[in-house]
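debug: dumping io for the single-chain case to check the tokenizer round-trip. Nothing else runs in this session.
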Amino acid sequence: MPEVGIPFHLIFVMSLIRADMARNLRNLDLNLLTVFEAVFAEGNLGRAARRLAMSQPAVSNALARLRAVTGDPLFVKAGRGVVPTPFARHLHAPVGNALELIRSGLGGAGAFDPLRSEREFVVATGYGLEVVAGPDFLAWAKAHAPGVRISGRLIGHREAVWAELRDGSVDATVDVVAPKANGFASQHLLDADVVVVARKGHPRVRDQLTLKGYLAERHVVLRPKSEEEARLEVRQKLVELDRDVALEVSNTLALAVVVSECDLLGVLGRALAEKLAEKLRLRIFPPPIALPNVGVYLSWHRSRENDPGHRWLREGIVSVFARARPRLAA
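debug: decoded output
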């Protein structure tokens, strides 16, 4: 999955829309948001109308009113249904979360029912953690909350993701770096160890990898996404080795693919390396020097601390990582 962000021109347009929405918020009927949520989920005005026990003209009228507030078409025709615009896709998670908070608030602290909820949660991950733990978490969510949707996001620039934690468009991060600013909370999930990977058939790396042999090779490395990542102890130890770096890449999957197709060496978390080794024909070696483990953290914004749905999400992530700890941790 590529790591992508919102294009600059879309951010600019959205900022103008938000300013206009702020001026018109006093005139916004919250029922319009439930219509938006239903149309997004159904992809068809007729089905959305039946879901809401409304007439189709009433749904169309509600969308027209919401379009007037946002200044965006929100949905465009496609075949027999409709598809959301880029702005509507960006708006979907915040609207769903806001409605869930309202429903929870009206219903009391225990109002979130995972068996009945259709809420969407957005979880951003880094360092290939979506590969090593994502399938387990999705299986857990499907078993406990069949209507809940989990959307994954790869972490690009961490400052941008932390801003999204603040505004609610991202619910939580699972990453090797935790935000330190006021207003955030984090929970340590595990400590992971790292390994060196080389392709099978590498002409010089055979049964073992000495420090001399390691430094004689060229390397592919991960480009740090923040100053905090650049200061990780394991990264500093590797930088001190003064390796011959041939290529920098932006994510762990890219690093693994590059290693599998040429004679560069790379460093990955052990769990990810073991998961990819057979598919990509990788060989795994202990590091030639002692390297510290890497902490993995669940992080969120404290404004969501008492949201029952968000608490359910956090507890689920913690439980999945606890069960997976023997194969993920050192």
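debug: round-trip ok. The mean pLDDT is 85.
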